[in-house]
Design goal:
40% of the residues lie in helices and 15% in strands. The protein has 238 residues and is an alpha/beta fold. The protein has a single domain, classed as TIM Barrel (Alpha-Beta Barrel), CATH 3.20.20.140. A six-stranded parallel β-sheet has the order 3-5-6-7-8-9. Strands 1-2-4 form a three-stranded parallel β-sheet. Helix 7 packs across helix 8. The protein is globular.
Length: 238
């Protein structure tokens, strides 16, 4: 599995606090069948998570070196989870936050606002940037027609694996999104919970059983693998 949304880069947001904690989380990921991880620390001025690219890359390199030292085999990539705000379009156009693995894809959390999400998706698309909407099943204003509209405008939808097993209301939405084929990617959104990657494995089994193994392979592996530099597949075979 390819997990493209995690907060396990140490000391940069509300995720892992230390290098050793990052390593322990990565060990959990490997045991659960994860082969690739994108580290996506929050980029949010409101929450005071604005770490420079230089510091992120420095800590990323330290983590990579420690993986080699401990003979841990997993592929790591770097990006940001960007909180939507009034100047988000300009900041992305000016390369302030990180895209995902230096591709044209950005991961954006629209959890606080809904009024102009389609506009953000469209304006970024015009600029050659594709939006991945982070865990919309958690947004308190969500409906399925809204998600269909975002996808039509050009966004991709990322679901948190743990949402399939947690809060009753969120779980209901998450299961409907899977059932309706509206999910493009499933990721862990792992912070410090060692069970995060086990939820990812269980979510893969759930989708395989409830929809099809083909669909599960697409949204857990094939689609996020395109962050290595290719295009996402939106023609799902269920």
């Amino acid at each position: 599995m390819f997990d493209m949304h995690t907060h396990i880069l140490f000391g940069v947001d509300d995720g892992c606090r230390s290098l050793s904690e990052s390593i322990e989380m990565i060990k959990k990921a490997i045991v659960s069948g994860v082969t690739d991880l994108v580290l996506t620390p929050h980029f949010s001025a409101k929450r005071r998570y604005v770490v420079s690219k230089e510091e992120l890359k420095e800590k990323f390199n330290i983590l990579q070196e420690e993986l080699i030292n401990q003979n841990l085999s997993i592929n790591l990539y770097l990006g940001n989870e960007i909180d939507e705000h009034s100047s988000v379009i300009d900041e992305i156009r000016n390369n302030v936050p990180l895209t995902l693995n230096n591709t044209k894809y950005v991961l954006i959390d629209f959890g606080m606002h809904k009024s102009y999400i389609d506009d953000v998706i469209y304006e970024l698309k015009v600029s050659g940037v594709k939006t991945i909407v982070a865990h919309p099943e958690r947004y308190n204003y969500i409906d399925y027609d809204m998600i269909k509209s975002w996808k039509k405008t050009g966004a991709l939808i990322q679901l948190n694996a743990g949402s399939l097993f947690g809060n009753k209301d969120v779980k209901k939405i998450a299961k409907q999104l899977i059932k309706r084929g509206l999910v493009d990617i499933v990721a862990s959104d792992a912070h410090r919970n060692p069970d995060s990657f086990e939820y990812l494995r269980k979510a893969y089994e759930y989708v395989s059983a409830k929809v099809s193994k083909t669909y599960a392979d697409i949204i857990f592996t094939f689609n996020p693998e395109q962050l290595k530099g290719q295009e996402f597949n939106q023609s799902f075979i269920k």
